[in-house]
Amino acid sequence: MFKDQITPLERLTAYNKNEAVDRLPCIPSVGNGAARVIGAKISQFRNNGALIAKAQVESYKLFQYDVVRIFTDLYVQAEAMGAKVMYPLDETAHLESPAIKDIADIGRLQPPNPYKDGQLPEFLSAMKIALDEVGREVGVIGSVTCPFTTASFLIGTEQLTKLMLRDPQAAHKLCEIALDANLQWAQAILDTGCGVTLSDPVASSTLISPKQFREFAFPYLKRLISYINSRGKSATLHICGKTNKIWEDMVETGAACLSLDNVIDMAAAKERVGAKVRLTGNVDPSAIMLQGSVADVKQAVIDCVAKTFDSPKGYIVASGCSLPTEVPFENIHAMMNTVREIGYPVTQDKLTMLRHK
After folding, report:
1. 88 burial class (0-12, 13-18, 19+ CB within 10 angstroms)?
2. Is it true that the peptide bond before 168 is cis, omega within 30 degrees of 0?
3. Residue 143's closest CA among 182, 196, 187, 188?
4. 8-12+22-355 maps to which CATH number?
5. How far is CA 249 from CA 38, 235, 269, in A?
6. How far apart are CA 337 and CA 357, in angstroms?
7. Phi and psi (nearest 5°) for 279?
8. Residue-wise pLDDT tens digits, 131-178
9. Domain boundaries, given as residue ranges, for the chain
């Protein structure tokens, strides 16, 4: 059995400097699956920062991946601004209704206070607990749902889509309010000592056109990432689904790393933007990690590494999106163990040998 030789912080620090490491960094994006590690229900995370921290810390200890992400769902900022969120007993939360139904109500929207409003204080508490417990060996990050996606949760995705066409000024106003909320939330996260990861799923080219992305998502993303960079931190940007038509725009936001979904051709991404930004992701969270066998996981990881390990700015092995909560633990172990077996430096000969082992 292959074992890690250094801590995640040591690994990422060395990898960032192009120094020797024991293996490629690997982040399975366990998410709410961490509840199962401690025998909890996902709904118990609501307003319980201590339990969120316990689940994520214990999940990290079990699998030994390279970043601890304090995350349950995409809605915590929008909920703190008035959106209604449904919390099933043991499934990830979903949006029940947006904060406002009509643009005439936009005046009611105010950026939430991260230290007082909604569940935000509990998430900050979870970050601090995780930092105290494992922050000396592994990076701990908080999650920010980006301006365009947050705006969609404030008024509804369908309504926002209509506004972009019929009343673009109003759509920009919503995005500006969402950005203000994001900036305050990012500041609070950074003030704990944690890093930041960014999710903007509604900005996907699967949902809006590249032209709409450049007008309504890009400017606000760029300002958010500029702030994060001004604090001496870098950000990973995840946009779900098809993004190949906006890769260069994603790079121009200032993100240090692009997290790409499993529908993306990583070889093409490496060719087009790999010299400008680090790449991560692409292992299928559903067909492979949830429904596949240990052998399927091993093959998928090898395939992703083979395509991307020599990307000029580097590659972090990861799932293409957050893992479904029921992913078998043995598949997460298989992902980590495959990366350990591949080792570093990576060679095509080693990958070929492992394919047939």
Report:
1. exposed
2. no
3. 196
4. 3.20.20.210
5. 40, 15, 13
6. 14
7. -115, 150
8. 999 999 999 999 999 999 999 999 999 999 999 999 999 999 999 999
9. 8-12+22-355
